[in-house]
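HUMAN: Quick job: go over this next protein and say how the chain folds.
***
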Amino acid sequence: MHEGQGHQEYIVTSDPEAVARVRASLLRTLPVAAWAGVASAVVIVSAVALGLFALGHSASRLWVLVFAWPAAFLGYDARRRFADIRRLKRTWAAKEVSPVAMRLSAEGLRCAIDSAPEPVFLPWSAIAQVRVTGQGLSTVRVDLAPGVSATTPGVSGLEQPEARMRMRRTWNGGMRLRFTVYALHQPISEIDQALGHFSNGRIGIR
């Protein structure tokens, strides 16, 4: 436990060097994936144009549309990827690598998503349950209580695109925030105890 700003909190830490390596890797691989989408779109458009030239006026316009729409989708997806990469570069240029992955306090749970400019804060009333799997490279899954969204009072950070990308619908219709912690330092049993302590026994790792 740590004392912070006059109140007790539990800090879950990760390895900043591991996070820095992941950042560098993503900045190398994400542009490659985006350019691959552009290349695929160009290949499809070229093939359609070649087919039209070969078949002339006898070509059916229907099959052209059938083969051309994937090119439009790939082009749109590549444009979105490049926009995401630019946003990621701006975020990381202004945001230093932090060893803090999560903060637990009497108010709630604060989650640091490395690609997001701001952390996500969830009061305990907004959380249904928490799962942490894996040691070292760990996955944190926070199931939200029914009806909780980015506009719920007390909730902050869920409106960020990087947080929305990590939201998934659960089997019972609720929402789940999922993110990765690189080189988790604390044992899961200790995190479980801290969750129970700060949530008055309501939340634990399932």
